[in-house]
Automatic annotation (TrEMBL):
Cellular compartments annotated: Cell outer membrane
Predominant place of localization: membrane
Keyword tags: Cell outer membrane, Membrane, Receptor, Signal, TonB box, Transmembrane, Transmembrane beta strand, Transport
Keyword hit for Transmembrane: yes
Membrane association type: Multi-pass membrane protein
Protein name as catalogued: TonB-dependent receptor
Record InterPro entries: Beta-barrel_TonB, Beta-barrel_TonB_sf, CarboxyPept-like_regulatory, Plug_dom, Plug_dom_sf, TonB-dep_rcpt-like
Domain (TonB-dependent receptor-like beta-barrel) ranges: 324-781
Lineage, broadest ranks: Bacteria, Pseudomonadati, Bacteroidota, Flavobacteriia, Flavobacteriales
Length: 808
């Protein structure tokens, strides 16, 4: 009842807020900035001043700029660029949309400090808050045949680990922390609020404005229990009408189509947004190694072969629509949304490649409804935003055929009688299990701005989850034992943000309260298979914890900044970790405990150091993670066929990451990053007499600890055709060898995941009308054997083409 009272209050607040909102009319300013040589100006700073407000932006890769929510009146518009002389003009905003195109006089490169005294990019403003954060800007990458996960994998301190090709499980490592310790957000809202079918790879890069990667310490406005870090996807919020369609095709039967668009009535603010996607992949790439072996006949030794994956097809499609009002007197946005999606996936292996499946697969459908509201200055200096969603997922796992398969793509003993699994199915007992997952998620933020230098924030997050399961293949006696899975999580956070000494010193302190209540009744078998007892195991767990932290930064000069942050963090187990997932071979872990960690970051950055046409930047971040009850997903079973989430005790991690960037005349861009950390097991064990044994201090298993990434890009305007754009890009990733399991006793008898080199390259060409772009990407050109999670091999060499067309 308390939950529904909260929900009623939230809805009441949302729909009463318009009564108290301001009534000032506002307009929308847009335009294009070019040089008197007819070249577009990228990255020009636009500063609007007047009527006691200051608004600023920068031009995009097409030279366009936009500023919204401008009260009617007279303003001064200043334009500054490294490629041109500064310019200042007076404009009047007295209608819904005002278009002002600007021509600058080309000149020699201006000194950077002449510009930076006037304005800073939004990227720089985030970096100056003191958190260890990487900002990934996606404007140029949006034209490539590239996924969001690939962009993240090129950023310092983050490693994206996939279990295979398109549609496979994905795991993120941030400075040694992984799994659900790293949370994903979309515009500050946890991604789970958008339903289980919505992943980072479902979002085309063209829809993304930037990606914020927080390492370790996370600001309070991202109010989830992100103990190890957070990835926040900030979507484009342009109010101009648009419609973009892209299609791509490539190796291993991979096809992707996506479309997204928006329309706004500038008279009344009525806004409609939509996006749709379709993904398909056979994932029939070749695999080889010590886990890819077959018996050509019964009783003969294993023969190691190069095989093709034959049962790993992935299909997904979905659509997301929003309608409501944006940038009106009573709301910055009030949008109602719905999402529908479907996915079906064949399952090729278990947790490792030891066991091969030929028939097991699962399907799932997701329906979601949402409400998104935001308003600045509801009362004077008081901002409110909230997001509420309800989702229902139907999932079915199909595994009823007991035939054993080999990497030849046929049943074992193909030239004799096919062998069968004694259990009656490929991954245990036959199943047609149906799961119905229902989730209610809310995220609410209140902000009070005392001044431009001081503000406080209060955030609340609620996640309520239930699952009902049914399996017609179970006996009547088993089905009579009704299972129950209920989960509720609340996270409440409060933060105070201050700027001192003319914005040179910035501080942010916060506290968080974590509350979890979960109940489960799960059927469990005890004893051996021939003589087992079935019972209903019940678990009720309630926890509440406090955490706190802060961040600080100091600008020694316009180019040099030092920063540090610390947090006592808590991470509550997720519903899927506790309750398991039959389709993904994840066993239930009802007694899983919360993770706790003391996180520390300290670093400095040197940015925008310029010498003639050369610009340099350098950032280093050192970190410590002192973690208790770390949750890891480990393979279990005789053939390591299933996953089980476990608390692995005390882990101490220390390390650093370094990033260097360089550009020449906004034409050649180079970025290099290195991440090194040492995560050690500090658990104390006891012998049979109860005497403590010295900790093993072994490295954390299945965790790459030394990675490097080098990215080079070349951009050229007016190549072949006037006003066209040509881009060439390469990326080299190095992952040092690491142990698949623990390395006690120096690693004797332990499996090593070998050192990996991944080299990608590609080209993109945008035609003069700026509506059509063609790109061609080559991935893993050297066709190296690539591994991530427990030696599950990823695709080899592949080629992918993409066409992007902007209709509006």
């Amino acid at each position: 009842m308390l939950f529904y009272n909260k929900l009623f209050i939230i809805f009441s607040v949302i729909f009463c807020l318009p009564l108290f909102s301001q009534n000032n009319s506002s307009g929308f300013l847009k335009g294009e900035v070019i040089l008197n040589t007819s070249e577009i100006v990228i990255g020009a700073h636009i500063i609007l001043t007047g009527n006691s407000i200051i608004k600023e932006t920068v031009t995009d890769i097409d030279g366009h700029y936009e500023i919204n929510k401008i009260p009617y009146g007279v303003y001064e518009l200043k334009i500054q660029s490294l490629d041109a002389k500064p310019k200042s003009i007076q404009i009047t905003i007295d209608k819904g949309i005002e278009e002002v195109n600007i021509t600058l006089e080309a000149t020699e490169i201006q000194q950077l400090n002449e510009v930076e005294l006037q304005s800073k990019s939004y990227k720089r403003k985030i970096e100056e808050k003191g958190f260890a954060v990487n900002i990934i800007e996606t404007e140029k990458a949006a034209l490539q045949s590239i996924q969001v996960n690939e962009l993240l994998d090129q950023s310092a301190g983050i490693r994206v680990r996939q279990s295979g090709g398109l549609g496979s499980r994905t795991n993120y490592i941030l400075n040694g922390m992984s799994g659900n310790s790293v949370k994903i957000f979309i515009d500050g809202v946890p991604i789970r609020n958008f339903g289980p079918s919505f992943s980072l790879n479902s979002i085309p890069p063209s829809m993304i404005k930037r990606i914020e990667v927080y390492k370790g310490v996370v600001p309070a406005h991202l109010s989830d229990d992100a103990m190890g870090g957070a990835i926040n996807i900030v979507l484009n919020t342009s109010l101009k009408n648009n419609l973009t369609v892209s299609t791509s095709a490539g190796s291993f039967g991979t096809y992707r189509i996506d479309a997204n668009g928006a329309h706004r009535n500038n008279k009344n603010g009525l806004t409609v947004k939509g996006a749709a996607f379709l993904n398909y992949a056979d994932n029939d790439y070749k695999v080889w190694g010590d886990q890819v072996a077959v018996q050509l006949s019964p009783g003969t030794p294993d023969v190691y072969i190069e095989a093709k994956r034959f049962h790993d097809r992935y299909r997904s499609q979905g659509a997301k629509a929003e309608f409501g009002y944006t940038d009106v007197k009573w709301a910055d946005k009030l949008m109602f949304g719905t999402l529908l999606s479907h996915m079906d996936k064949q399952v090729q292996t278990g947790a490792t490649m030891e066991v091969v499946y030929g028939n097991r697969h699962y399907t799932q459908n997701t329906n979601m409804l949402s409400l998104d509201y935001a308003k600045k200055n509801v009362f004077e200096n008081f901002d409110v935003s909230t997001f509420i969603s309800y989702s229902k997922l139907n999932r079915k796992t199909i595994d009823t055929i007991a035939t054993q398969y080999s990497w030849l793509g046929h049943p074992t003993y193909y030239f004799g009688n096919p062998d069968s699994w004694a259990s009656g199915a490929e991954a245990g007992r036959p199943t047609l299990q149906k799961d119905i997952d229902k989730a209610i998620n809310t995220r609410t933020n209140f902000t009070y701005n005392f001044s431009n230098q001081n503000k406080i924030q209060l955030n609340h997050l609620l996640n309520r989850f239930t699952r009902n399961s049914d399996d017609p293949r179970l006996s009547i006696a088993e089905n009579s034992l009704k299972e129950q899975r209920e989960y509720m999580k609340n996270v409440l956070s409060f933060s105070v943000e201050n700027n001192f000494f003319e914005d040179k010193l910035k501080t942010n302190v916060f506290t968080k309260y974590y509350l979890m209540d979960r109940t489960s009744k799960i059927r469990t078998r005890t004893g051996n298979q021939s003589n087992s007892t079935l019972l209903l195991k019940e678990n009720n767990t309630k926890t509440d914890d406090f955490g706190f932290g802060g961040a600080i930064s100091y600008l020694i000069s316009n180019n040099l900044m030092v920063f540090g942050s610390a947090e006592k963090a808590v991470r509550l187990p997720e519903a899927e970790e506790v309750f398991g997932n039959v389709a993904e071979n994840i066993n239930a872990a009802a007694e899983l405990q919360s993770e706790k960690s003391n996180n520390y970051n300290l670093g400095f950055s040197i940015t925008n150091v310029q010498f003639k046409n050369h610009t340099f930047g350098f950032t280093i971040n050192s970190f410590i993670r002192d973690t208790q009850d770390l949750i890891m997903q480990l393979p279990v079973g005789n053939f390591e066929e299933f996953f089980l989430n476990r608390n692995v005790g005390k882990i101490y991690t220390k390390g650093f990451d370094v990033e260097m960037n360089y550009d020449f005349n906004k034409m050649i861009y180079f970025n290099a990053s290195t991440s090194i950390f040492d995560a050690r097991d500090y658990n104390v064990t006891f012998n049979n007499n109860g005497v403590p044994i010295t900790p093993s201090y072994e490295r954390l298993s299945n965790t790459p600890y030394f990675t490097m990434n080098y990215n080079l890009r070349f951009d050229k305007m007016n190549l072949i055709q006037d006003k066209s754009r040509f881009s060439f890009f390469t990326n080299l990733l190095y992952v040092h060898e690491f142990f698949r399991h623990g390395n006690t006793l120096g690693g004797a008898g332990k499996t090593i995941i070998p050192t990996q080199y991944v080299f990608d390259m590609g080209v993109a060409y945008t035609f003069p009308n700026k509506k059509l772009t063609f790109s061609l990407d080559a991935k893993n050109i050297l066709n190296k054997q690539l591994f991530d999670n427990y030696a599950l091999q990823k695709p080899g060499r592949g080629f992918y083409g993409k066409l992007t067309y902007s209709i509006l």
